[in-house]
Description:
- The protein has helices spanning 3-27, 36-45, 54-62, 76-88, 105-122, 147-165, 181-192, 205-211, 216-226, 255-265, 287-303; strands at residues 33-35, 68-70, 95-100, 129-134, 170-173, 200-204, 230-235, 238-239, 242-243, 270-273.
- By secondary structure, it is of the alpha/beta class.
Amino acid sequence: MNRRNFVGLLPGLAVVLSSQKLLSKNSESLPISANEYNWVTFYNRSGKEWGKDWDACLGEFAKTKIPGFEPSIRDAAHLKELIPSLEKHQIQVPSIYVGSLMHGDDLAQKSTKQILEIAQKAKPLGTKIIVTNPNPIQWGSGQLKNDRQLLCQSSHLDKLGQSLKTMGITLAYHTHDVELQAGAREFHHVLQNTSPENLAFCMDVHWIYRGSGNSQVAVFDTLKMYGERIVSFHLRQSQNGVWSETFHPEGDIDCIRFAKEIKKMGINAHLVIEQCLEEKTVQKTDVIEAHKISYAAINKLFNS
């Protein structure tokens, strides 16, 4: 290798090293958490309203002994409302989930302002990761973002990530199934047109699986393509295409192989339980016991 070739490699090498440093700094030793959406689905099944009484709700959460909680936050005032109960029940908040609208300049500026305000409130709680899934143009409409909107979205995500980085918080990109339509153009565009040091990846394993036509091939290919950017995993299992009530390594996704692969790749990411319920999920237990089972299974699989 001559000097010119070596110098040409330096910018890319710097990005990789910066990305790896970012992942290590903000993912290492974060406690296992449970996402708020799980609890919404369990409470709905029981005819209860999650969030009506935060002290009671988070008191039940604390009974699971899961150390961390990933709330879905609307705005800074919403987070402020949760803080007294989080502190009372000694629940950590290593990550939070915030929706955003990034496919238009005005929308993106509003979302950016909102997320930065949330970050200011979250930082004293020890939050290291803010997960965002830019909303579709209209939920359920089937309308996909055009090229101009995708360029706008990736540009604003990169800028937001850069701003959060100065606060010691990592922005992580999350997807559902809609981003995987049309050749997964939205999913790939965001990760191909943002800097790894500004935007990390929260891999929701089951949405990659389901959004790709129930494909394990897609799950493991995604891991190979974007593993170096992963700071967080949202973990869910299904049986015969239906979300199961509790997480088990065996199921539609070979989570035993998945755990081995991320260990082999040296990925040290935040683990977030997102074992939710859907219409055909078989009921066997309650919300507290189900989360205890999922927590034990995930802890054993990924940390043993």
